[in-house]
Amino acid sequence: MLVLLWSPVLQKVGCQAPCTLEDVVTLSDFNLTRFLGKWNEVQWIAPAFEDQASMWTDYYHEYNSDDYGQVTGYYSGKSPSTGQCFINGVMLLPTNNPGKLFLYQIGSKSMIDYWVLNTDYTSYAIVYSCVARTNNTCDTARSWLWGRMTSLPEQVKENAKTVFQNLCMNLTLLYSTTFSTNPCASGSPGPLGAVQSLDINVDCSSGVCRLQHNHNVTLSVTFQPQKDITEAKSLLFGIIANTLKVPGPFPGMPINACQNIVGGCPVTAGTTRTYISTVFIKPSYPKIRLVVQWELRDQADQKVFCFAVPVEIAA
């Protein structure tokens, strides 16, 4: 039996444009652990008109908690032009506000709001994202109706429409996702699949790795490359408040990453090797919270592996 429990956002009657972000009420008792798992995109509202012939099909997200308590996962679907499955890594980053998350997309190195308006955790979830804003007014938004299954009862869809409409969203941009009888299989994203284990010598138990001034941070990655490596380089990207910062090289990081691979280069495809890097956290580094994306690239500038870690620099 499906029980419909709707948040206070549904109690708002009508729409007074422009909507402000205070109008968006998230789930006050949101439980991230219960939210984990696979969510199929049943319906979604696009920021602008979309040609249905160019829309992804069989689209879903899947989230899991890793050994550090960080929520990683991926999104997958089929390209309409090729009919082939694609897969890309993501992270869900919680904030101090219940239900208000960030969705970090590892491939595009972008981060968006990911606000859970309502969910019963077992069948449906309604999620909102402000794509562009002016001060506290959302100019362009995107929303999703997710389902544990690929379809939902009509009453759930109608209630979701009411949520979207009360948030001043254009229902003419509401689309339904097509699912085939041959969907994409679950699995980990390509470049991330090279990582077999990751160890950081700092406290990451809260889901955010805490870095302290005047201390070394040592990172150890056991990986298995899919292609031969003759040359390697490391890249760091820092994302602060949804803004992509220009990548390194990070101060103190050698340009030749073969120095960081135990046994050096070359590395034969399919063999297991370990990458070790140590970074000193200088006192001059600002106290800040950000997402760090770390990449190892080969001689063709192709990713060998990449991962993202939320960190906080503290005194």
Summarize the structure.
With 315 residues, this protein is mainly beta. A hairpin with a 2-residue loop joins strand 13 (232-240) and strand 14 (243-244). It is built from 2 helices and 17 strands.
Write structural notes for this entry.
InterPro entries: Calycin, Ig_E-set, Lipocln_cytosolic_FA-bd_dom, ML_dom. GO terms for molecular function: lipid binding. Its main location: secreted. It is found in: Secreted. The protein has 315 residues and is mainly beta. It folds into two domains: 32-176, Calycin beta-barrel core domain (Lipocalin), CATH 2.40.128; 195-313, Sandwich (Immunoglobulin-like), CATH 2.60.40.770. Helices cover 5% and strands 44% of the residues. The radius of gyration is 21 Å and the shape is globular. The termini are far apart. The model is unreliable at 1-14 and 188-193 (pLDDT under 50).
Write down the overall geometry.
globular
| Main β sheet profile | 8 strands, antiparallel, barrel
CATH fold group of the largest domain: Lipocalin
Give the domain tally.
2
The SSE order reads HEEEEEEEEHEEEEEEEEE
Structural class by helix and strand composition: mainly beta
Radius of gyration: 21 Å
Poorly predicted runs are 1-14, 188-193
The average pLDDT value, as a whole number, equals 83
CATH superfamily of the largest domain: Calycin beta-barrel core domain
Give the N-terminus to C-terminus distance in angstroms. 52 Å
Strand order of the largest sheet: 1-2-3-4-5-6-7-8
Q: Classify the helix fraction into a percent range.
A: under 10%
